[in-house]
Write a structure and sequence with these properties.
The protein has six helices and eight strands. The protein is α+β, with helices and mostly antiparallel strands. It is globular and about 65 Å long. 25% of the residues are buried.
Length: 176
């Protein structure tokens, strides 16, 4: 299964509802040394004579099919859950070596006060009960959804190709 949480930057307003719901669902308390699993970043685009555009990015585990963190883990603490497709961590097997963090291209693995890795588990208990992950359910603007990463990439490519074709047609119309 290739299930992951998909993110649409054009819909995200940076409200943080996804991050708060994740903390609530996973009983994460930063003051107790438990790191946030989902984080929100702001990126400023533009500048110069025009006003800058602020974009927001909600980041968490991508639940990669060929998970570099899983491959990099020397103890087998990281595993694919068959039913949900989630990439999970068994903290009892984690030795805090940070090999997973070095292998992950997205900087997802986080470490708690006991130096054990924590990451998104795709709310697998919610998925198995037929519910959406907490962050997806909490997003008021639909920036997060649950789906297949490969299918989503194909849809993005089709949308971008349609924009290119439309631009070329418009340029031809204006040029004649």
């Amino acid at each position: 299964m290739e299930t992951t949480i998909l993110f649409d930057m054009d819909r995200c307003v940076g409200c943080g509802a996804c991050a708060v719901s994740c903390q609530d669902q996973n009983d994460l308390f930063p003051e107790r040394g438990l790191p946030a699993i989902r984080r929100i970043y702001q990126i400023e685009e533009g500048g110069g004579p025009s006003a800058p555009i602020i974009r927001h990015i909600s980041v968490s585990c991508r639940h990669c099919e060929d998970s570099p963190c899983l491959i990099g883990c020397p103890t087998g603490a990281i595993f694919h859950e068959e039913k949900t497709g989630a990439v999970r961590v068994d903290q009892a097997r984690c030795i805090g070596c940070r090999s997973c963090a070095m292998a992950c291209p997205f900087g997802v693995p986080r470490y708690d006060a006991d130096d054990l890795m924590r990451k998104c588990g795709l709310c697998s208990t919610r998925l198995q009960a037929g519910f959406k992950p907490a962050c997806v359910k909490a997003c008021p603007f639909g920036a997060l959804s649950l789906g297949n990463a490969n299918a989503a990439q194909g849809d993005r490519e089709k949308r971008h190709l349609a924009k290119i074709v439309s631009s070329v047609r418009e340029a031809r119309t204006q040029g004649t």
